[in-house]
Write a structure and sequence with these properties.
- With about 450 residues, this protein is α/β, with parallel strands linked by helices.
- It has ten helices and 17 strands.
- The chain has three domains: about 80 residues, 2-Layer Sandwich (Alpha-Beta Plaits), CATH 3.30.70; about 80 residues, GMP Synthetase, Chain A, domain 3 (2-Layer Sandwich); about 230 residues, Rossmann fold (3-Layer(aba) Sandwich).
- The strands form four sheets. The chain has a seven-stranded mixed beta sheet, with helices on both faces. The chain has a four-stranded antiparallel beta sheet with strand order 2-3-1-4, covered by helices on one side. A four-stranded mixed beta sheet has the order 5-6-7-8.
- A hairpin with a 2-residue loop joins strand 9 and strand 10.
Length: about 450
């Protein structure tokens, strides 16, 4: 139904959509009355150039339309806020038009606006109750839009999801996170708001590298792409990278692309499977050894064994890096380095650790450093750096502390009868699977 009284506002949908919870695109249809000039086709470009400041500027709307009364003429639409319908142009503008043999008479043109003409912000501002915050932010993971809706938006969640899909080409599914990431598997419960519910397997590109995974079963955050590049940029060909919580490979795969030797581990069987898949997809599977283990077991097993071998080399030129990207828990794993190489021979070029953590402290740099020092049992003052990775939420920062593991931490013999109280930080480990036991072939039907 069109309005009997046309609305002059090009940016606000019809008031009848306020409070809508199920998207009705037809309800957004409205008419506006725009001022217009009738111009011969051969004078169009001259008039447009001369009246540029008063022309219709609304994105997505044509400002030159057909004149149904004459094939050789067109209508140039003007900005209704600068030239109200029924008014006249300024004398100087009229003189310009007369010089082009164009009538300066301002006509009225009825324009129909539809749902397609409004931006996502305009649609949601018109639908949600007045005065409530409207957020249109989302993370794009391939064809999936990942939203974190606030409580006041939940009654409109399905409409919001559909609008996000409609207004962003290439998106076919919108999901909302329904709980915080608390499990060691780093996946979260999600609700499909709109679109293809069954298709959670997606493909993304980050720094020219392709990753595929089931977003409902693994962790992926596109906001970490800069951090992935920063850490990988520290590596040189031939360096060793031990990725303790590797996920689907955003550190491991690009490191292997740089011709590094990579040991990548993840406890989540799904992450482990997609990690192997992405190594093969990017043709680096021969450069990456993959493990499906508890993070502490990985450090105390494959990492320890390889460090002993590498640190014993007299002419070793490559560096050793350990990445621990599990910010909710990774700092608690740092005590695994205490006496990890007890009884071994010291080395001047010890491994560098990049450990991530969340902080709600007023001084997050100091907070993260002190917590790391407490787990290591030594001071890092003057021999570590702490980087702000991103703001996760108000008063919650994601930080990365980097340091070379002190020799007294790695090599000191533990006192008799002493030891660190290892509280379980992850679910019981699955049986470790080597790279040769890849379930890749078994999972092809899911790709």
């Amino acid at each position: 139904m069109l309005d009997s009284q046309p609305d002059l506002d090009l940016y606000v949908p019809h008031p009848r959509v306020r409070g809508m919870t199920t998207l009705d695109r037809a309800a957004f249809t409205k008419q506006v009355v725009l001022p217009a000039l009738k111009v011969k086709k051969d004078a169009l470009q001259k008039v447009v150039k001369s009246l540029k400041g008063v022309l219709l500027q609304r994105p997505g709307l044509k400002r030159i339309v057909d004149d149904l009364e004459g094939e050789d003429e067109r209508l140039i639409l003007l900005d209704p806020h600068k030239i109200p319908a029924g008014s006249s142009l300024a004398e100087a503008q009229q003189e310009v038009l007369k010089s082009f043999s164009v009538s300066p008479e301002v006509l009225s043109y009825n324009l129909e606006l539809t749902y397609d003409n409004f931006k996502v912000e305009e649609v949601l501002q018109a639908v949600l109750p007045e005065g409530q915050e409207v957020t249109t932010a989302f993370s794009r993971i391939g064809h999936i839009a990942h939203l974190n809706l606030r409580d006041h938006q939940l009654p409109y969640k399905h409409l919001i999801g559909q609008v996000i899909i409609d207004k962003n080409p290439g998106l076919t599914c919108a999901v909302n996170k329904t709980n915080i990431i608390e499990s060691a598997y780093r996946n979260f419960q999600m609700e499909v708001l709109a679109g293809e519910e069954a298709n959670m397997i997606t493909k993304v590109k980050e720094h020219y590298i392709t990753y595929e995974f089931d977003f409902s079963k693994v962790y992926w955050n596109p906001r970490l792409c800069t951090e992935h590049a920063r850490v990988v940029g520290l590596l040189k060909p031939g360096d060793f990278l031990f990725d303790v919580f590797a996920g689907v490979g955003p550190f491991a795969v690009p490191a292997a692309k740089r011709n590094c030797v990579v040991f990548a581990n993840d406890l989540n069987p799904e992450s482990y499977r997609w990690l192997q898949h992405n190594c093969k997809l990017n043709k680096v599977d021969r450069k990456v050894q993959t493990f499906n283990m508890d993070g502490r077991d990985f450090l105390e097993g494959p990492v320890r064994q390889t460090l002993i071998q590498q640190l014993a080399l007299k002419d070793r030129k490559h560096a050793l890096h350990i990445v621990m990207n599990l910010p909710a828990m990774a700092i608690e794993f740092l005590d695994a380095f205490r006496h990890l190489l007890a009884g071994g021979t010291g080395s001047a070029d010890l491994p560098t650790v990049h450990c991530y953590g969340f902080s709600k402290h007023d001084d997050p740099v100091r907070d993260v450093q002190e917590r790391a020092e407490a787990r290591l049992g030594t001071s890092l003052e003057g021999c570590c750096s702490v980087e702000l990775v991103r703001n996760v939420a108000p008063h919650k920062e994601m930080m990365c502390i980097s340091f070379r593991v002190p020799a007294e931490v790695l090599y000191k013999e533990p006192p008799s009868g002493a030891g660190v109280d290892h509280q379980p930080q992850e679910p019981a480990s699955k049986r470790p699977r080597s790279s040769e036991e890849s379930p890749e072939e078994k999972g092809k039907e899911a790709l």
